[in-house]
Amino acid sequence: MADLVTADKTTEQKPVFGITEILQLLPHRYPFLLVDRIIELEGDRRVVGLKNVTVNEPFFQGHFPGMPVMPGVLIIECMAQVAGVMIYRDMPDRHKKLIYFTGVERARFRRPVIPGDQLKIEMVLLNRRNNFGKMEGKATVDGKLAAEAIVSFAVVENPAT
Predict the structure, then answer these.
(1) Could you tell me the end-to-end alpha-carbon distance of the chain, in angstroms, rounded to an integer?
(2) Residue 1 falls within a domain, yes or no?
(3) pTM above threshold 0.85
(4) Nearest of 24, 156, 41 to residue 100 by alpha carbon
(5) CATH number for the domain including 118?
(6) Is 146 inside a domain boundary?
């Protein structure tokens, strides 16, 4: 896969969805919106997104003072949100629905994610039946595996609507 940042602007990868479109799809907001851009989307089968990790993230204040490390559960949440963009995208009445994170399997954390890293999150649909499904994901930094997991989800009516 080509680097996202290149000297030749003609080969620079354009986002499929920028932050404006992501905000229209996901219900998450600061400080819990954890996806900045969607760079690949293959129908309802596969999605790739980016999370730019900055020292300004509120969780770094306590995790850990003097040695900031992104909590693993938030990396998994990044995976779920990237997957959520794909699921919400073509959903009828998506503003009346919520996608609940219902399970995590085989989560593994391979390297710390620190300020300045860019997480590249790839999610692949394993199966889906009606309002339930599973997706397999991996998060990499500079092409090196940082985390991997299988996440389960359920689509439910939003009680607030």
Answers:
(1) 42
(2) no
(3) yes
(4) 156
(5) 3.10.129.10
(6) yes
| Domain region containing 110 | 9-157
CA distance 110 to 25: 30
Return d(Cα 54, Cα 31) in angstroms, integer. 12
Among 63, 97, 111, 128, the active-site one is 63
What sign has the CA pseudo-torsion 104, 109, 110, 112? positive
- Indicate the residue type of 144: K
Q: Is 2 within the bounds of a domain?
A: no
Q: What is the mean pLDDT of residues 124-148?
A: 97
Higher pLDDT, 136 or 15: 136
Burial 11-27 (b: 16+ CB within 10 A, else e): eebebbbeeeebeebbb
User: What is the reported pLDDT for 3?
Assistant: 43
* 42, part of any domain: yes
Residue type at 82 in one-letter notation: V
Q: Is 95 a catalytic residue?
A: no
